């Protein structure tokens, strides 16, 4: 059967408007999918955040809480936790933890599992700089050990404690907060830089080890974000660090929280073992 279509200006106009209608419907569908995934956020997910009483940990914990997560808040400073988190008792578990104490960390993780039934997310924010503005030949050995204990061993103990639960669930997101100092090495900050480099090394190993399990393990390397940790450092050391930032400013806590939330989201599913940059252009790798 032969069909002859006569292309008239009216037909062209009708085809054009049908095409435009289809395009609009497709765009609307995409927007709805996006909106739905935004609404889902962290609903019914359980997140453990260490160092949640101050700075990055505090802001990241609030963001996840606001987006629907149940949160296990770990810190030495439980008085500050109680002050900073009010109004969501059903979704918060405060735990007084020293992350350098492996037994205490294991018990704290069990406490969160006992309360909320699972753990989907771990974010390691507890950290210290230790003494800074000190050359390597003047570094105090005990200080190096202390900084490694908190920054590296603490992140190791918490990840070791949550991994069996994540493996059983076939899902997990771990984020270690490292530092630009771990990528680049900050003069005057041997203990801090080396401990954060160790965290970056651990992230690469863990990312590979659990790559086929539904668990991703990444790190974040911020440059300078204004928090009590930075306020406690000598001005000359802070100037040394901020002078190296091409954007000529500090990062904001909001910028850090947004990136952390993306890294631990379900949507971030094909990146593991990676150290994300948050340095205003200082590290382009
Ligand atoms: N602020 C920055 O510019 C910056 C830059 C790069 C990396 N970081 C990293 O981000 C993380 C958070 O830093 P911040 O600036 O928010 O610091 P912060 O000092 O504001 O907060 C750190 C929190 O960790 C807690 N903590 C310290 N030792 C602990 C321990 N042994 N057990 C449990 N909790 C402990 C503290 O009580 C505090 O609440 C740190 O790992 C830090 O190295 C910060």
Give structural notes.
With about 280 residues, this protein is of the alpha/beta class. It has a single domain, classed as Rossmann fold, CATH 3.40.50. About 50% of the residues lie in helices and about 15% in strands. It contains ten helices and seven strands. It has helices at about 10-40, 55-65, 80-85, 100-115, 140-170, 180-185, 190-210, 230, 235-240, 255-265; strands at about 45-50, 70-75, 90-95, 120-125, 170-175, 215-220, 275-280. Helix 5 (about 140-170) runs parallel beside helix 7.
What is shown here, in short?
By secondary structure, the chain is of the alpha/beta class. It has helices spanning 9-40, 55-66, 78-84, 102-116, 141-169, 180-184, 190-209, 228-231, 235-242, 253-263; strands spanning 46-50, 70-75, 92-96, 121-124, 172-177, 215-222, 275-278. It starts with 8 loop residues before the first helix and ends in a 7-residue tail after the last strand.
